[in-house]
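Entry 12.
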Amino acid sequence: MGAIREYKKEDGSVSYHAEIRLKGYPPQRESFRTRTLAKKWIQDTESSIRDGRHFRTAEAKKHTVKDLIERFISQWLAQYPERVVRQTAYLAWWKNRLGHLLLADLTPVVLAEARDALLAEKTPRQTIRNPSTVNRYIAAFSRALTIAVKEWGWLDDTPMRKVSKPSEGKGRNRLLSIEEKDRLLQTCRSSPSPFLYPIVSITLRKKSAWESETCTSY
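Predicted 3D structure (tokens):
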């Protein structure tokens, strides 16, 4: 149940300290300027605790997009060596653009703006990304957000669900440029996972050798 205590400060002003104690949950406390705000907080918070939303919201205020991406790469993506190279490159873009944001501030509006930036900006080859490539960037980050919802409890829901994907035209194959490979390897070096950089490095070397053999055969 919720309780409100009134406190008078030395300057004569008053504050209201609200506290919620529900069996099976840690106590929650906040301070407010008015009793009305304190009452509303108690009502909203008790409802969200019972619905299972409150603590996920609290987690979203503790972690940044950078935290999410780095944990996803080291704990989840590293299990799939065949996906590491490409997916890490996609996620590095999101980390560079949105890494500073708290997950609580990661809204569909922010993601839609990032999507539009992906569509508009030039790659190291000075070309514009096509919609199918942008959708792969979106899919990589969407997967990380889904894991944060389902397995870590960092989010109540993924905001990417409300973001529209660009309509795809005819697909094409694109290889990583030298600059992109360098950035990818640098990101892997800074990962907390000791296995990520060796896996990616070996995969890139094998891929380069395969491409060389293919070109020679033609």
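Annotation: Confidence is low (pLDDT under 50) at residues 213-218. The chain has eight helices and three strands.
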